[in-house]
Amino acid sequence: MTTDDAGGDVTEAAWQKLLRSDRVDSALVQAAYAEPRLRQLFPWVGMWELHFSRCTEHPPTWDIPYIAPLKGGGFLVAGPSREQSVGPAESAETAAAIVVEHLPAVCGPAFLGNRHELAEKEQSNPQ
């Protein structure tokens, strides 16, 4: 098994756990999981927000927009930083599609490791 395969296995296990969780809107998780480019990223939840990381361990990458529920319904796509807002989305599917539109140019399967290790790998193997 390669490191890439292991990262994919860890990522899939995290998605399966999240699909059974009540920590975030289930329709949102299902919509994000249905998007192949999001499904390859490591999902994590904080404050009922759905985040995506290009690595599987803490600390995660913080370069992908995240999705937050809005009071009264719908979602806000924000980020990657807390000071940035991409915009509102009426449905979970639209929110997931907006995140896909704003993915970094190089955004492959989640790396097995943390963001520091990923940065080292990217510096030694620029694409």
From TrEMBL:
InterPro entries: DUF6193 (IPR045682). It comes from the Bacteria. This is DUF6193 family natural product biosynthesis protein.
